[in-house]
Design a protein that fits this description.
Elements (H helix, E strand, L loop, with lengths): L2 H4 L12 H5 L2 H4 L4 H20 L5 E6 L5 E5 L8 E2 L4 E2 H7 L22 H7 L1 E10 L2 E8 L2 E2 L4 E3 L17 E8 L12 H14 L4 E6 L4 E5 L5 H8 L10 E7 L2 E9 L6 E6 L2 E2 L5 H21 L10 H5 L2 E8 L20 H19 L1 H28 L4 H4 L18 E6 H11 L5 E6 L11 H6 L1 H10 L16 E5 L4 H17 L1 H5 L3 E4 L4 E5 L2 E5 L2 H11 L4 E4 L8 H9 L6 E3 L5 H12 L3 H11 L8
Parallel strand pairs: 1-10, 14-16, 17-18, 17-19, 19-20
Antiparallel strand pairs: 1-2, 2-9, 3-4, 5-6, 5-9, 6-7, 6-8, 10-11, 12-13, 13-16, 14-15, 20-24, 21-22, 21-23
């Protein structure tokens, strides 16, 4: 029987209701890891923000409950509850159980909203083990509860709120929508634990973008609370982003509106050599950019280049590039437009697709920036000076790089002599351990499983690449060896598909020097090979802190807390050995505790918040001492002092 004969109508499954969401959750929230988990929460928060943008809500509450569920509430109009004749059920139930159902399609209920597809509430409902929603309208509380997206009962009127924690903040006489839900562990298999830090930062960011709205965040278990209210809008956000950078001028605010499309941009140049652009559409963070970002970049390039040609009379062959004109630029781009016209690429709303937005943003930004450069010569000189410096540095770096690195250079080099490679050639099963020094390297080489584990020992601390250009990086021997071993190149010739190992493991000593080397390596990957982190290939090994010998049996513990817990259960007649260096362990111990896939603990490196990560690396590894000193003073209490 041929394959076509086997593939019949019996194999076609029609998914109804919310079944498609539970079947393919990543299509709706991007992933089912911790990133998808927090995107899933933001869908409900953004629904409340839509009420605020429409002018009906003044306050938004987010509560992490003791039972690990989360509550989101607003004092808006409440979800409609009238019976829809076509479906013969309440509008509330339709909104919560049907895809592509909501008040955002014709642009009448919500002129501006982030929820184009109308699936936010229903998707969250589908991916929750349970969800409770109440809509307060006309002095009554309408309530419905769901299990895995399915209603347990019809919408009914109840006397008491299901979220008593909010009673003192949101009395029952107020109109409101209150939603409480718990992520389904069958969907979010990696974790169902919400990060206080991530939720707090998401709320803070939205508070900047929706100025004048009060946001309240409570962690019921820890008893902590945070409140956010910003009148300065995106200028306040810009200043916050640049607080650890040396600014070259005061923020420039650009505003314009055309065809019911509002454009708001705040920009400022700093001494940094990085471009830092954040874009939003109806408060949704478009992390992948889109037409509004393309229009903005075009405007910046044209405006600065035209000004440079006018002032400096640059020759054509010495002209500035777009990268030159945007080096050191921090910018916030915020677009607000009718939800009926909104076009996102992908359900997670990561990229704006409206073609008409690009020329609109380009026109508004260029006209107003041209005017600002003409009217504010000091700012113009600072911006042009930064661009000219970037151009000169680019040419110098290119000349140096071309002399030592050409396309295919790393391919032509043999593998580093210090690399103990593995036998397998399948990147999916190959592991590269980056270890500190020859002593640890020797133990790791002897203790490894050479079938799939490779060892690359480093000869001391590597270059701090936070501010280093590519020519310096490829000249540095230890980094050249690492780049060669990885096989994916760097800079213009980088190709992640050529990566030789899909497990790259940083394994350093549990002391200050080891932590410093680990930080230098993380800086290198974050700044120059970010695709390794994005692909989920970078890990940090967790060697044991102590070996505890009791009744002639050895037990390894990996933290102070684990040590105290173990000792409390066995008494004081023990032998305790503190490991400070990997070289203190013999090959068998290193394999058993740190390298054996059955026993080891690896921490996957991911960038949950790019903005925060950028600030931390700049603070810790940048040239400015005062921000680093302040960071250490503020965070010193959280450090474990090893005497």
């Amino acid at each position: 029987m041929s394959p076509s004969d086997q593939y019949t109508g019996k194999q076609i499954v029609v998914l109804e209701g919310l079944s498609p969401v539970r079947k393919r959750p990543a299509m709706y929230i991007g992933s089912t890891d911790t990133n998808g988990l927090h995107h899933y929460v933001n869908e409900i928060i953004d629904n409340s923000i839509d009420e605020a943008l429409a002018g009906f809500a003044t306050d938004i509450w987010v509560v992490l409950n003791k039972d690990k569920s989360i509550t989101v509430a607003d004092n808006g109009r409440g979800i409609p509850v009238d019976i829809l004749p076509k479906y013969k059920v309440s509008a509330l139930e339709i909104v919560m159980t049907k895809l592509h159902a909501g008040g955002k399609f014709d642009g009448k209920a919500y002129k501006i909203s982030g929820g184009l597809h109308g699936v936010g509430s229903s998707v969250v409902n589908a991916l929750s083990s349970w969800l409770k929603v109440e809509s307060r309208r006309k002095g009554k509380i309408y309530f419905q509860e769901y299990k895995e997206g399915k209603p347990k009962k019809k919408v009914g009127i109840v006397k008491k709120t299901h979220a008593p924690f909010l009673t003192k903040y949101l009395p029952s006489k107020y109109t409101a929508t209150i939603t409480t839900f718990k992520p389904d562990s069958k969907i979010f298999k990696e974790t169902t634990k919400f990060s206080t830090k991530r939720i707090k930062e998401a709320i803070r960011q939205r508070a900047y973008l929706v100025s004048g709205i009060r946001f309240h965040f409570y962690n019921e278990e820890k008893g902590s609370e945070y409140h956010f209210y910003f009148e300065g809008g995106i200028v306040s956000l810009l200043k916050n982003l640049n607080r650890h950078h040396e600014a070259l001028h005061e923020p420039i605010l650009i505003k314009g509106e055309e065809d019911e499309k509002q454009v708001e941009v705040a920009l400022q140049y700093t001494t940094s050599n990085k471009e830092n652009i954040h874009s939003f559409v109806n408060v949704i963070n478009t992390t992948e950019g889109g037409t509004h970002v393309a229009g903005f970049r075009t405007a910046i390039t044209r405006s600065v280049k035209e000004y440079s040609q006018k002032i400096e009379n640059l020759k054509e062959k010495e002209d500035l590039t777009g990268d030159d004109t945007r080096e050191g630029l921090t910018a916030i781009i915020s677009i607000k437009m009718s939800s009926r016209d909104l076009q996102f690429e992908g359900q997670t709303k990561g990229k704006l697709g409206n073609s008409e937005i690009q020329p609109l943003v380009a026109k508004i930004v260029k006209e107003q920036l041209d005017f600002h450069l003409e009217e504010t010569p000091a700012d113009a000189r600072a911006i042009l000076g930064k661009a000219m410096l970037a151009m000169k540095a680019r040419k110098a770096a290119k000349a140096a790089k071309d002399s030592i690195m050409r396309k295919g250079l790393f391919d032509s080099l043999g593998l580093p002599g210090k690399l103990a490679d593995c036998q397998s050639k399948d990147p999916k099963e190959c592991e590269l351990y980056i270890v500190e020094g020859p002593s640890a390297g020797g133990s790791a080489k002897q203790g490894r499983d050479r079938k799939f584990q490779a060892i690359l020992p480093l000869g001391g601390k590597i270059l701090n690449t936070e501010k280093a250009r590519l020519d310096r990086i490829v000249e540095f021997e230890e980094l050249k060896d690492l780049i060669t071993a990885l096989g994916m190149g760097i800079g213009e010739v980088v190709d992640v598909t050529k990566l030789r190992y899909q497990h790259i493991i940083i394994m350093t000593d549990a002391d200050v020097d080891g932590a410093h080397i680990g930080t230098l390596l993380l800086t290198f990957f974050y700044r120059h090979l970010p695709s390794v982190i994005d692909g989920g290939y970078l890990y940090i090994a967790q060697p044991p802190l102590y070996k505890i010998t009791y009744n002639k049996k050895e037990h390894y513990v990996y933290s102070e807390e684990e040590k105290e817990e173990y000792l409390a259960g066995i008494g004081n007649k023990v032998s305790l050995q503190r490991y400070k260096g990997l070289g203190e362990m013999n090959p068998e111990q290193l394999w058993t505790t740190t390298m054996d896939p059955k026993n080891r603990i690896l921490k996957k490196v991911n960038i949950a918040d790019g903005e925060k990560a950028d600030q931390v690396f700049q603070t810790l590894m940048g040239p400015e001492v005062p921000p680093r000193k302040k960071f250490i003073q503020v965070n010193a209490k959280m450090a474990t002092i090893d005497l």
